[in-house]
Design goal:
10% strand; CRAL/TRIO_N_dom; phosphatidylinositol transfer activity; Phosphatidylinositol Transfer Protein Sec14p; CRAL/TRIO_N_dom_sf; 281 residues; CRAL-TRIO_dom; CRAL/TRIO domain-containing protein; alpha/beta; 5-stranded mixed beta sheet
Length: 281
Amino acid sequence: MPTNIPNFIPPENFTPILPPELSVEQKEIFNEFSKYVDTILLPEDDPLHQTERSWVTDACLKRYLRASKWYLSEAKARIKYTLEWRREYKPADIEPERVEPEVVTGKMHINGFDKHGRPIIYLRPGLENTKAGPRQVLAVVFMFESAIKLMPKDVENVVIIVDFHECSARKSPGLGIAREFMHVLGSHYPERLAMSLVVNAPWYFWGFFKLIAPFIDPVTKNKIKFVDLENPDRMKSDPQWANILDEIDRNQLESEYGGDQEFVYNFEIYWDTLLKRIGKR
């Protein structure tokens, strides 16, 4: 039955993928990293000190260390860079009104969870309604922060479905916007992307992908999989392809992709439901 209500409640039977236990050496690196982070936080008398303190959880620090392959100097540089970015960009405090024009058509929305309890973000450039600009990146950051708030216990990642249905070369996000998004994702949300499933990729996408590929770090690039809805078993002969139903249960997936969710996007209902769920309304 068609519904306008998005699914922000994770399934009861999901199986989270937990990071491996730290080795003795990794525990020592983690302790040293944690001490370093304490020295670069805002002073305790700063109004934003507690906000930063709440953000640098043990899980957060471990994500930066894993993304840096446990090279301490690299992890230090990366988290310092992100803290400086968060102070200026304030991603957790983006006012919904600033990004509202970017979500009117449903070109970016969260709906459902994969088999491991990871929120699903849908990006549909075919529904593009605005000109390329910083607000588009801001809106994706808003969605990322919202998805993080929707994560159940023991879940740290999101799944992104990029659907190019009815997307022309004119409607596609520009190279600059794509590069900026990949930079923000790789630099400030390390280990947050579980996988990106690309659906209905048009002929011109492959040339576009070659242009942005050099700006995607190898770890992120390996998480990008392509989906052939007409031939889901294509993944058996090419590891670059995936069967979307191997990753997401039908009751969590929108019907256009083989799921049972007959979700019909209605901006007013969606926006009100999301903002209430994440405490912004």
